[in-house]
Amino acid sequence: MLTLAELRDEALGCTRCALAGTRTQVVFDVGPPDADLLFVGEAPGQEEDLQGEPFVGRSGKLLDKLVLQEMGLDRSAFAITNVVKCRPPGNRDPLPAEIEACRPWLEAQLELVAPRVVVTLGNFAAQLLLGTTLGVTKLRGQAYPFGRGRLVPTFHPAYALRGGAEIVAAVRADLVRAKLLLAGP
Ligand code: URA
């Protein structure tokens, strides 16, 4: 079995889909290799593609703020990754074939990090990890059994930036749900 660092090294050279031809670099993850809490987003945007770290743009700033305010945690205390590890050109939605090609990386990551709580950000991560076609509006508001832990679906921070106070309040409530799960048995 590979370590997370070995897995990441392998992924950095990935050519499993056409995004390999347009990316600046693979954006694999950030955070402790044994994090109890793992956020899973959609795909890197422009800033992430340039810096090589997930959620460093406007969405990421909102995520950091809400996680600090509601959970008391900063980036040293949790891990972040995405369903798709390379930026789709123009920030378009990832294609089903790209999600499928990238899926083994995420599955191996989940296996190695073995987080107690996974928080999915937006439809793509929730649908992939819960194996459903339901949207996050329907899915959120509760936690789901997942691996050896639980999964809490919430809205994508980019949606919260556009959606206003009601969406932000829902994300806050979901983060409190995740915090209670982390504190529990
Ligand atoms: N949006 C995502 O889903 N992931 C990132 O890393 C940045 C923006």
Report on the structure:
- With 185 residues, the protein is an alpha/beta fold.
- It has one domain: Uracil-DNA glycosylase-like domain (Uracil-DNA Glycosylase, subunit E, 3-Layer(aba) Sandwich), CATH 3.40.470.
- It is 45% helix and 12% strand.
- The chain has helices spanning 4-11, 46-51, 58-71, 96-113, 123-130, 136-139, 157-163, 165-183; strands at 37-41, 79-82, 117-121, 144-146, 149-154.
- A five-stranded mixed sheet has the order 2-1-3-5-4, sandwiched between helices.
- A hairpin with a 2-residue loop joins strand 4 and strand 5.
- The radius of gyration is 15 Å and the shape is globular.
- The mean pLDDT is 97.
- The chain binds uracil.
- Residues 41-45, 48, 54-55, 57, 59, 82 line the site of uracil.
